[in-house]
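Morning!

As promised:
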Amino acid sequence: MNIVVLLKAVPVVGTERLGGDLLTDRSVQLEANGNDEYLLEKALKLTETHGGEVSLLTVGPSNATEPLRKALAMGAARAVHIADDGVRGSDMRATLAILAAALARMEYDLVFAGADTSDGQGGVLGAALASRLGLPYLSYASEIEPLPDGGVRIQRISQAGYDVLEAPTPAVVMGTQLLGAPRYPALRGIMQARSKPIDTWALADLELDPGSVGAGAATTRTLSSDKPQERAGATFVREPAEVAVAQIVDFLASRRLI
Amino acid sequence: MGEIWAVGELVDGAPTKLTLELATLAQQLAQSAGAEARAVLVGPGAAAAAGVVAGYGPAVIAVDTDASLADRPVSSVVAARVAALIAERNPSIVLVGASNDGKDVAGNLLGMTDLPMLANAAGVEWQRSAPQVEMSTFGGKLLTHSTFNGERGIVIVRPSSVTAEPAAAAGSVETVVLDSVSELPQVRVTNRVEEAGAAAPIEEARIIVGGGRGVGNQEGFRLIEDLAEALGGAVGATRAVVDSGWIGYGQQIGQTGKIVKPALYVACGISGAIQHKVGVQTAGTIVAINRDPDAPIAEFADLFVVGDLFEIVPRLAEAIRARRSGGG
């Protein structure tokens, strides 16, 4: 079973900022998007048990190689890095077109996507890729397993519990943190990762018109960026429990919350 | 100016709170834009539910579906039909809710229609003949405004971005039978499992009581559930609590969980790390109960009660119940 994991290289959580052009500044240190790492871990476990290889796919600047190396050290076999100056400023349509073109050139049974990203929180590209590529889409997975007939079965979280979903492969699966915590790379993995291939593809390799992606082709734009209004600051209550409770009740009543 | 649509969501045949919010928002935007507002409802019982949604102003397009689609994921059934309607009628703006199913629908629509998309809206206003979409960016560090360069696009709207308000005049209801729908590749729902102790959904709750690592253990978490019940609210949790298995993932608030905007959030034994903060910082009122007055939650709480939650929370639940039964 061969699995492609979509891995977004995002600014280290807490350090994100916009550049003067109101695009996310990705020249800072990048790390693998936390939600993508759960899928990587699950992909590694599945291939360890059932055979096959895990490939990584990312679209990002040259410094995205650092999180790719870490993911290779965790156990992925190879990585495809779409790196092209023309990609910068791509909107969701263009990002979808780039990922779809890249996947069309890769071999896989499953494509794994994380629930969303720390710097965008869209969480929709998995669904978009599936409908664009004509593949079954299974989402919000808390468990993923192969079926004997070559299909895939997942548990999809629901408010009541979970739904069991089945589909033939190839398919796109979007998963959650319930798939399990990602492993730390072992020293041996880190050594091996140095010789694992990272294929760098440009837009030309994807036969995409450079005029159809990037900032110039964007169909959306950021107009402004402001600091959010600060909350007024907390009023502290440092009384014994009985008194504190009375004060909480008064406070809630004054705001008509009870 | 083309139409402004809201894509609704039905749960057991009833429109969700988020659906009514989207209907309200579509109506507001349409009024500002001088356009027509429509809500699209797809699913079993769509026609029956249409009247409720039309009460919020938009004209409703109801597409009933039959039992032959019952074993497909809801989002794939909705997306295929909304895509067919979009192709037929070319609306300008399509609003979709940021629920799990809503995001799946929106993603499927992006792949099928190739319309421009703005995700994660915390508010939408009509400005200079275009929707201006407010987003809380980078975990709330920035408030950004974005728009479409052209006339059309899909906006994914978070719960509680707008207050649902019935309109003075209800919209019309149109029941539609679609002839040519290209279904999405088949995924079969082979089983729906209900787990014991499923908690009330946090997305729609006006009041949420959240528990963090400070509650100590599963037993301690029962105090959180009891306070939520006393307040008539839902139970939320930090990731640490969910990872410990004290409550299900559906209740997780924060970066890898849900982003909520209740009128009241009571945070018990929650330090307020950035990953949790991003999920709840826009709550109307935040009350923190924590032993450590230096916990980061002090930065975004309105009332910070320094003390032992095991002493305070049960007494608070009792006081609220007493107040309620006293009619006060």
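Chain B touches chain A through 94 residues (CB under 8 Å).

Hope this helps with the figure draft.
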